[in-house]
Amino acid sequence: MLCYKSPLFTLVVPPMASLLTIKSPSLHLQIAHLLVFFIILAPAQSISHCRTSCGAIPIHYPFGIDDGCGSPYYRHLLVCSETGHLELRTPSGRYPVRNISYSDPHILLIDPFMWNCLDRDNFRPTRAFSLDTSTHLSLSPQNDYLFFNCSEEDVIIEPKPMFCERYPDRCDSSCDSSSYLCRHLPQCASALVSSSCCSYYPKATESLRLMLRYCASYTSVYWRNIGAGPYDQVAEYGIRVDFDIPVTTKCLTCQDTLKSGGTCGFDTQTESFLCICEGRNGTASCKDRSISGHSKTAVIAGSVTAVSGAGAVGIGAGIWFWRKVRAKAPVTCGVQTNDNRLF
Question: Quick check: pTM over 0.90?
Fold first, then answer.
């Protein structure tokens, strides 16, 4: 026997063997209504709002760490762990996020498989970093890639200025052995003692994979802006990923604190725009009274519950049937006797 308790009542569903012995069509209809009633009233978990941070990293539009928040272009890309650590999902794995800048739109990632100063001449197994080309994310041109101990038989390792002068049509195919970064490794200029280094910017993930077949390891260095001038930059380890901020009139209206004060989001089923407000959601603005109010739980994943017309009929029939049964016999949850048997 199945027993379901709610704050309002207790429902008892007889075992399947009992249901199979029922021959009355009216009883079959009553049982169907009762089961619909039972399913609709099952509790659903919900999230009451869009979180605006993960640990110390702010989460703003176009991103969201709760499904239905932000732009659907970046859906499921960011993951916030229970311990408050933010990660970016990519085809090559999940990478810790060090920072997100919205004024100069980019994400700074850490790849724990890349070479770092503590490795020195010891090179660990690594993997090629990649991005999903269908998203609005792109590798920043401010990244530089350093490759270590590459095979001279398979990789063109030459000082780039001289090589480009001799072979201008093949300039981009060489790994620059005269790279400034190879001679001045950030934070550890003398880390390499017996290893070679060259700089190469792969134009595609396949180019990076090919380089790693013939090189012991690699690392990514990005140039961080510290001022307004073109030379106000410092080199730091990490991967800079640029992103676009989709700007729409609906989102600007929704975010306007004077007109609305909502949060830009989307319907998790249709991905159409929604303005997430306190207590209800709208299609354009929190102050648009012409729209019907929807609870936030209809927007956030894990909290979407639809009640159809048939379900509403089932609720009414279930209440009628429950009252009829309760009037005839008491219910003792977990125990079935001749006094409390439903059928």
Answer: no
Long-range contacts from 288-297, C-beta under 8 angstroms, 24+ separation: 296/46, 296/47, 296/48, 296/49, 297/44, 297/46, 297/47, 297/48
Q: What is the DSSP letter of 292?
A: P
Q: Which helix (H) or strand (E) holds 271?
A: none
Nearest to 13 by CA among 311, 338, 333: 333
* Three-state SS at 320: helix
**pLDDT value at residue 277:** 85
279 burial via Cβ count (<10 Å: 0-12, 13-18, 19+)? exposed
DSSP code, position 184: S
The amino acid that residue 275 corresponds to is C
Q: How far apart are the first and last CA of the chain?
A: 12
Give the DSSP letter of residue 55. T
- C-alpha separations of 72 from 98, 194, 269 in Å: 23, 49, 11
What's the average pLDDT block by block, 10 residues per block, for the chain (343 residues)?
48 48 52 49 48 96 96 96 96 96 96 96 94 91 95 95 92 93 94 96 89 96 85 92 93 83 92 84 68 44 40 49 50 44 34
* Closest listed residue to residue 197, CA positions, set 159, 170, 224, 239: 159
Radius of gyration of the chain (CA): 30
Non-local CB neighbours of 180 within 8 Å, separated by 6+ positions: none
Task: Give residues with Cβ within 8 angstroms of 130, minimum separation 6.
Answer: 90, 91, 92, 205, 208
- pLDDT for res 40: 44
pLDDT at 272 (0 to 100): 93
Helix 25-40 with 309-328: angle, nearest 10 deg? 110
Return d(Cα 78, Cα 100) in angstroms, integer: 11
* Residues 6+ away with beta carbon under 8 Å from 216: 123, 148, 149, 150, 195
d(CA 208, CA 312) in angstroms, rounded, equals 58
> Which amino acid is present at 16?
M
- The secondary structure of residue 314, as a DSSP letter, is H
